[in-house]
Amino acid sequence: MKARALLLVLDSVGVGHAPDAAAYGDSGANTVGHILRQRPATRLPTLRSIGLDTALALAAGKPAPNPRLGSAGVLIETAAGKDTTTGHWELAGATLKEPFPVYESFPAGMVSEIEAQSGVRFTANIACSGTTVLDRFGEEHIRTGRLILYSSADSVMQIAAHEDVVPLERLYEVCRIARKHAGRIGRVIARPFVGQPGAWKRTPHRHDFSLTPPRTVLNALTDAKIPVTGVGKISDIFAGSGIASSHPTTSNRHGMNVITELWRSGASGLIFANLVDFDMLFGNRRDPDGYALALEEFDSWLAGFIRQIRPDDLVIITADHGNDPTWTGTDHTRECVPVLLPGDNPGDSLGRIKGFGFVANRIAAYFGVSNDWRADSASA
Question: Which of 302, 344, 350, 375 could form a disulfide with 357 if both were Cys (CB 3.0 to 4.6 A apart)?
Answer without folding.
Answer: 375
